[in-house]
């Protein structure tokens, strides 16, 4: 099963990330876990908004003119 985790260590060490045109095929809201993060997104279909509620997470959305690309084959699977 695929899981997406984006989390900061604490309030003083928040994670900041930009996801532009990132597509993860088949990911569901219950597979996304967020905490203490600021996430800028453009052109992604990752379901972040529902996972962000009540977790001290700010999701900033903007438009993207580029084609989206997937992560298939770009990361080593966790074991």
Report on the architecture of this protein:
It is globular and about 35 Å long. Helix content is 5%, strand content 38%. With 79 residues, the protein is mainly beta. The protein starts with a strand and ends in a 9-residue tail after the last strand. The chain is built from one helix and seven strands.
Structural class: mainly beta
What is the share of helical residues? under 10%
- The N- to C-terminal Cα distance equals 11 Å
What is the mean pLDDT? 86
**Total DSSP helices:** 1
Using only C-alpha atoms, the radius of gyration works out to 13 Å
Low-confidence stretches: none
- Cα shape: globular
Please give the number of β-strands.
7
Order of neighbouring strands in the sheet with most strands: 2-5-6
Compressed to H and E, one letter per element, the order equals EEEEEHEE
Described by strand count, sense and barrel closure, the largest sheet is:
3 strands, parallel
Indicate the proportion of strand residues: 35-45%
Strand-helix topology:
Layout: E1 4-7, E2 15-20, E3 22-23, E4 32-35, E5 37-42, H1 49-52, E6 57-62, E7 69-70
Parallel strand pairs: 1-4, 2-5, 3-7, 5-6
Describe what is shown at a glance.
The protein has 79 residues and is mainly β. The protein contains one helix and seven strands.
Keywords:
two-stranded parallel sheet; 79 residues; mainly beta; three-stranded parallel beta sheet; 1 helix
């Amino acid at each position: 099963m695929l899981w997406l985790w984006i989390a900061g260590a604490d309030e003083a060490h928040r994670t900041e990330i930009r996801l532009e045109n990132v597509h993860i095929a088949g990911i569901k809201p219950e597979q996304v876990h967020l905490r203490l993060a600021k996430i800028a997104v453009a052109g992604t279909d990752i379901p972040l908004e529902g996972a962000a509620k009540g977790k001290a997470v700010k999701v900033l959305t903007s438009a993207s003119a580029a084609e989206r690309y997937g992560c298939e084959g770009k990361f080593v699977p966790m074991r």
